[in-house]
Predict the structure.
Amino acid sequence: MEMTITLRSEIEKGIAELGMNFSSFGELSGINRGIFSAILNGSPPKPISLNQMEAITRAFGKPEGWMFDLYIEECFYDGKPNRRRVEPFLIRCAELGRTDCIREVLSRLLEDLKHVSMIFEIAETLFTSGKIQESLIFYECVVENEKYHHSERLAISHYRLFRASIGVNNDQSLRAAFRFEPFCGKLPDNHRLDGLLHLMYVYYTLERLEIAEQYADELIEFSSTVYENEKAKRNKTKKYESLLTERPLVKYYGQGYLIKQGILEAQGKYEEAKSYNEKYADLSWFEGMDDASLREVEKFKLFAKANKLNLEILMGNTEYLDEYAEFLESNPQETLHGLLAIIKSANQHYFFVDQVILQFSPYLTDINQVLKVEGKYYNQTTITRITLNVFYELAVYYARKEKYVTAIDYSLQVFQSSVKIRNKNILMKCIPFFEEFRRFSTPTQNKKYETLMKEMYHNA
């Protein structure tokens, strides 16, 4: 109990330095004099609650987290963990970034693995209250110490870690996906839907299309099963409670078909991709929809129209060009996706779209400005992927027009951004592109290229 005595000695010392007694300090801190007496002079001393500890800290004018390393012993009064003190203390340590205290408490808790359940519940409390980063140390602890491989809390912990890890850079997203995949099927239905959705997104973004297609198919099948189960439950009971999902159920179903179309499009299977367009163009038949679901249905209707025009352009049907440009003007959130199709098709089918490029020039000047766009429908990872491809196609386009300096400028913008996020797929396009047209590059462009090559090798 040496540390506990030290904590109490510090409190007594602080009271003496203020020239107060228990009564006056109790008034200052808001803690009853009798409680103070029991905390400091009781036999045995009364344990200090976290609220009391923080009230004492404020009364002394000390910074938050004062004496937290000594307070740990209060959490294990008489050598046993007391949940009423341990749980709020760990949450407060997480909020204050006191990982030293967290690790010490976790180490002592894990002397008995039955406490893994409490650690998981603390992680969930933090995560669901929006404290994502603060929760991760607890989920990692569960992952490392859960003894039942098929436990639901182990699967959920992997799921939470996966969600927190994706989107930072491509390498990290891929590692997170690899780690999470074996546990996706062990999740409860609501989390499994979201797990499949994000696995599909990760592999699609990384252009690992075969794996993305597998998850798109699985998401379509599983969301259909969940939909039928929910419909049956709704028809059987008057006290029906819908499955609590992060997104409306229709979102998972429609998104599976939308990404499936996108994958076929990326593979150049345009006619086959067309057949999937109608699968999500009108989802008004979905039963049990609320306002959020109806908004998703309207979004899918818009996506279907955009993607139908997109496919026509990619197939070289230039008669749709004016209609598509007009559609993009009216729906700016689709502009980047549309410009990619238009410029890519122009390169593949050898026609020119200078007027379209001029019309949408604000999107086609500075890659760093475009990457700051906050998409109404698309997350930042998707915006980044599309933008890099748009600017690469612009480099190819201007090389066709023999405007080599402009072409190289575009390729170097893509190269720089790709190095930053470690997008190896597009990097491997930029390097041979520059080498092919190096003889047309300016000294400034050469220097920038060499700097980026060094940075790439340094980060490899």
